[in-house]
Design a protein that fits this description.
UDP-n-acetylglucosamine1-carboxyvinyl-transferase, Chain; 14 helices; binds uridine-diphosphate-N-acetylglucosamine; 32% helix; 24 strands; cell shape; pyruvate; four-stranded mixed beta sheet; Enolpyruvate_Tfrase_sf; peptidoglycan synthesis; cell division; 2 domains
Length: 417
């Protein structure tokens, strides 16, 4: 199993490019299931989750051509096997995103129930409830969702909870339903807007993506198009936080500040100096960070996917921070590992109290989920001495060439077997 070895204490300086967004690439790949034409996607990041999704689509019968590492052409014209097996869904919950498009276009989908995961229970009841409201017949047996519908019918769906992939699944399904679908209490994440833009280019009639009410007028068929996947706002936020914690300066090419307002506000509060234009962000940090309290919530509030990285920032900041996690019930697993590096963190329910100390101590730690891994990398970068991070396959699910990018910024980091 591979590990990362980091020798901390060096400021990070330099320029890197931000990759395409994992959470926008995965639904865009699934959008290929909505048409028999070819969907051409650009700016697809080279990540384990993308490879898993590509394998899943291929075993269903989707033809996928990769022109270079970041471009793909997908055709579902000869799809034969509308099944997402347990083995794939258990490693990547986003596989549930094939449910809506398969059902809408092929009339049937057999998808393994994702089950719980490290950060929480993560049910998919809202996906199922929405599709049932559109007329799907859904049976759950032997751990699989078996969904059938001759033709989905547009309707008004009020979601009980704000769900990102739930909104994406229902939005994709509604594109080929008959009549009008109105999704209320929809998630507003930029990745939903990116997916809507792709679907609109494919001929879908969608309004309101990016607000909490999305309306979709169903059409008979969608066609192919070319779509450039948006930059990864969580990768962007992770590098900005790493530099704020470790000092130095960074220029992020292809980064979008307008999608990161809540994170940038907190980094400014911590003492970072930030400039940005449409497609770059520059951050300078030349003093120890100040503690910043935060509460995660659906977009546009502070993202749960940045909570762990800010836990590390607060571990080495001046003052005490209170971090409240409201999205996932078990998303503090990095705390135990950070404590092994001497961080002073106490957890009560969904709240963590972090007393900043001047320096963390390098130690052997274990990655437990994707963003927890990122928090440990930042911890290693700011710690005294050597940090060894085990189970970094979690990191490879969502960060493209992270150690190469960090080496380019001057970090002492290496991957070992
Ligand atoms: C997406 C992101 C993930 C991010 C999360 C929250 C992708 C591929 N993943 O995950 O990186 O951390 O949004 O921003 O885009 N819930 C239910 N019933 C449902 C669906 C969700 O109760 O049917 C609950 C979940 O357990 C969780 C909350 O709703 O507590 C939000 O989950 P959701 O937005 O669905 O997360 P994902 O779409 O899985």
């Amino acid at each position: 199993m591979q590990k990362l070895v980091i020798h901390g204490g060096k400021p990070l300086c330099g320029e890197i490019s931000i990759s395409g967004a994992k959470n926008a690439a995965l639904p865009a790949l699934c959008a290929s299931l909505l048409t028999n034409d070819t969907l051409r996607l650009k700016n697809i990041p080279d990540l384990k989750d993308v490879t898993t999704m590509v394998s899943l689509l291929k075993q269903m019968g989707v033809t996928i051509l990769t022109n270079d590492t970041s471009e793909m052409e997908l055709s579902a014209a000869h799809l034969t096997n509308p099944i997402a097996p347990y083995e794939m869904v258990k490693t990547m919950r986003a596989a549930i995103l094939v449910l809506g498009p398969l059902l809408a276009h092929k009339g049937e989908a057999i998808i393994s129930l994702p089950g719980g995961c490290a950060i929480g229970l993560r049910p998919v009841d809202q996906h199922i409830k929405g599709l049932q409201a559109m007329g799907a017949e859904i049976i759950i047996e032997h751990g699989y969702i078996h969904a059938k519908a001759k033709k989905l019918v547009g309707t008004r769906i009020v979601m009980d909870i704000v769900t990102v992939t739930g909104t994406e699944n229902l939005m994709m399904a509604a594109c080929l339903a008959s009549g009008l679908t109105r999704l209320e209490n929809a998630a507003r994440e930029p990745e939903i807007v990116d997916l809507a833009q792709c679907l609109i280019k494919m001929g879908a009639k969608i309004e309101g993506a990016g607000t909490d009410v999305i309306t979709i007028q169903g059409v008979d068929a969608l066609h192919g198009c070319m779509h450039d996947v948006m930059p990864d706002r969580i990768e962007t936020g992770t590098f900005l936080t790493a530099v704020t914690a470790s000092s130095g300066q960074i220029h992020l090419k292809g980064a979008r500040a307008d999608m990161l307002d809540a994170v940038i506000d907190k980094l400014l509060e911590a003492g970072a100096i930030i400039n940005s234009e449409e497609n770059w962000i520059h951050l300078t940090m030349n003093k120890p960070p100040k503690s910043v309290s935060l509460r995660t919530a659906p977009y546009p509030a502070f993202p749960t996917d940045m909570q762990a990285q800010f836990m590390t920032l607060n571990s080495v900041a001046n003052g005490t921070a209170i971090i409240t996690e409201t999205i996932f019930e078990n998303r503090f697993m990095h705390v135990q590992e950070l404590r092994r590096m001497n961080a002073e963190i106490t957890v009560e329910g969904n709240t963590a109290i972090v007393h900043g100390i001047p320096k963390l101590d390098g130690a052997n730690v274990m990655a437990t989920d994707l963003r927890a891994s990122a928090s440990l990398v930042i911890a290693g970068l700011v710690a005294q001495g050597e940090t060894v991070i085990d189970r970094i396959y979690h990191l490879d699910r969502g960060y493209e060439r992270i150690e190469q990018k960090l080496v380019h910024l001057g970090a002492k980091i290496a991957r070992i077997n």
